[in-house]
């Protein structure tokens, strides 16, 4: 007798964005793309607190959260091998700390299509199950 097929688990993505309307739009887009969303959260402290969640498959993080840069929270996510997509209102990757310059960046404003392409590139090779 065949085992029933379990549907693949939806990837769980941590979302950090401090502008409420932008956060709601990104959250809706992530859900439409098939993701479970943790957040949105609006502070670096919240990102650091949630970085240890065992169910995370990746993160979409605004670089500037209420005046604080998200870079302090990145080592915990990257040490776990989690893919991170940074979001910024400026094309400023050259201003990022050297160790984070290779991370993918979406420059705001961006639409669901660009988010989807970036997320697919980010999570495409990762088996979320």
Notes on the protein architecture:
The chain is an alpha/beta fold. It has a single domain (12-115), classed as Rossmann fold, CATH 3.40.50.2300. The chain is built from four helices and seven strands. The chain has helices at 20-32, 44-50, 74-79, 112-123; strands spanning 12-16, 36-41, 58-62, 64-65, 68-69, 84-88, 105-107. Strands 2-1-3-6-7 form a five-stranded parallel sheet, with helices on both faces. The protein is globular and about 35 Å long.
SSE order and pairing:
Blueprint: E1 12-16, H1 20-32, E2 36-41, H2 44-50, E3 58-62, E4 64-65, E5 68-69, H3 74-79, E6 84-88, E7 105-107, H4 112-123
Parallel strand pairs: 1-2, 1-3, 3-6, 6-7
Antiparallel strand pairs: 4-5
Total E-strand runs: 7
Label the CATH architecture: 3-Layer(aba) Sandwich
Q: Which regions have little confidence, pLDDT < 50, spanning 5+ residues? A: 1-6
Tell me the CATH topology: Rossmann fold
Summarize the helix and strand pattern as letters: EHEHEEEHEEH
- Indicate the proportion of strand residues: 15-25%
Brief overview:
This protein has about 130 residues and is α/β, with parallel strands linked by helices. It has helices at about 20-30, 45-50, 75-80, 110-125; strands at about 10-15, 35-40, 60, 65, 70, 85-90, 105.
């Amino acid at each position: 007798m065949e085992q029933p097929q379990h549907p693949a688990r939806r990837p769980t993505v941590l979302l950090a964005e401090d502008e409420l309307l932008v956060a709601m739009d990104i959250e809706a887009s992530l859900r439409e793309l098939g993701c479970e969303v943790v957040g949105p959260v609006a502070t670096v402290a919240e990102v650091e607190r949630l970085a240890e969640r065992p169910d995370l498959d990746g993160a979409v993080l605004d670089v500037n959260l209420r005046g604080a840069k998200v870079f302090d929270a990145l080592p915990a996510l990257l040490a776990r091998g989690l893919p991170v997509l940074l979001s910024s209102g400026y094309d400023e990757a050259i201003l990022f700390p050297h160790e984070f310059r290779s991370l993918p960046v979406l420059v705001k404003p961006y639409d669901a299509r660009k988010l989807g392409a970036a997320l697919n590139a980010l999570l495409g090779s990762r088996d979320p199950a």
